[in-house]
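queue> pop job 88
queue> type: inverse folding (structure -> sequence)
queue> payload:
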């Protein structure tokens, strides 16, 4: 039996959301959360004079330590490519439901790539107000085009181009974050897997919700990735937890939002902060986002980098393969 999709529920003209989407009182979002101007980084300065390079590296490091999230502009990914990425994603979700279902994944059996409605079990049995499409984006040697949409016909071409371009952004950010820690420029990328580092892309589709004050698109969480790079259709909805309060992220046109994830927090031995965030939904607008998760291969061992440890700074995290770490986090177990 096909799963009931949130998009289909929303299109049914309902005035009240089903009970499985209603959050407990303490989880319900503040839709009027104060907005926050998270750090904004001009990446073109990484290719400028030595003084500007040093200043920008420090700005990136400070944002990673204090916020765990920042936005980058002049990142090298063209506005046209981002527009085309958004267009092919929207076109997929505009397809007839029966056609989208031909790409349905089987998350219960660990087959995450494809079209779905939720990625992880929720102890309370509550669901997020979102559908998604999920697949490996990088490296090219591991792409499985059988899990990618065949319609629209330009989906593959656009996503392959986006993967190449976003990898360039990732390389520059990891270089800056390494230098800021006093490491060699290539250190963090090598610790994440070097040329075997993977990127997963997820298209989140949050339909209009008649009772947005009762629901969440995605529950509060941190990403397992090293970095997550996200673009959206500019409909507000991303909130981050800062200084014991939820604050809404103000989008900057043509910017890419960068999240620090668990992997980078572990490698930096806690010097970089994994950002705790959630997604709220809109009463009358579709919100879409395109996060790309930069992750190590499953067999890569994650542990604080030895160069950052000494008698005064012991390791805060136990060594574990990324596959084990992911399994433990998804299943909410310690080992």
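queue> result:
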């Amino acid at each position: 039996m096909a799963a009931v999709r949130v998009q289909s529920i929303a299109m049914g003209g309902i005035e009240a959301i089903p009970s499985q989407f209603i959050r407990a009182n303490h989880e319900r979002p503040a839709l009027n959360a104060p907005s926050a101007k998270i750090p904004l980084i001009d990446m073109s300065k990484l290719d400028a004079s030595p003084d500007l390079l040093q200043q920008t590296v420090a700005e990136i490091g400070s944002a990673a330590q204090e916020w765990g999230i920042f936005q980058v502009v002049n990142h090298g990914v063209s506005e046209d490519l981002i527009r085309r990425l958004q267009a092919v994603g929207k076109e997929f979700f505009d397809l007839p439901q029966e056609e989208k279902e031909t790409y349905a994944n089987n998350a219960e059996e660990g087959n995450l790539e494809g079209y779905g409605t939720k990625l992880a079990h929720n102890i309370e049995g509550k669901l997020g107000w979102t559908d998604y499409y999920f697949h490996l984006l990088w490296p090219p040697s591991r792409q499985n085009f059988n899990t990618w949409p065949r319609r629209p016909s330009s989906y593959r071409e656009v996503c392959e181009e986006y993967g190449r371009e976003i990898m360039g952004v990732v390389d520059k950010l990891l270089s800056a974050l390494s230098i800021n820690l006093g490491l060699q420029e290539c250190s963090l990328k090598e610790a994440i897997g070097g040329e075997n580092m993977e990127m997963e892309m997820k298209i989140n589709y949050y339909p209009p919700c008649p009772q947005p004050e009762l629901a969440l698109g995605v529950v509060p969480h941190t990403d397992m990735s090293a970095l997550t790079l996200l673009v959206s259709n500019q409909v507000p909805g991303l909130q981050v937890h800062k200084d014991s309060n939820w604050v809404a992220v103000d989008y900057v046109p043509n910017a890419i939002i960068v999240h620090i994830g668990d992997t980078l927090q572990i490698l930096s031995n806690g010097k970089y902060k994994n950002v705790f965030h959630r997604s709220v939904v809109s009463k009358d607008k579709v919100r879409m986002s395109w996060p790309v998760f930069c992750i190590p291969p499953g067999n890569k061992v994650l542990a604080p980098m030895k160069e950052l440890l000494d008698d005064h700074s012991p390791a805060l995290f136990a060594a574990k393969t990324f596959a084990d770490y992911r399994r433990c986090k998804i299943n909410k177990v310690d080992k």
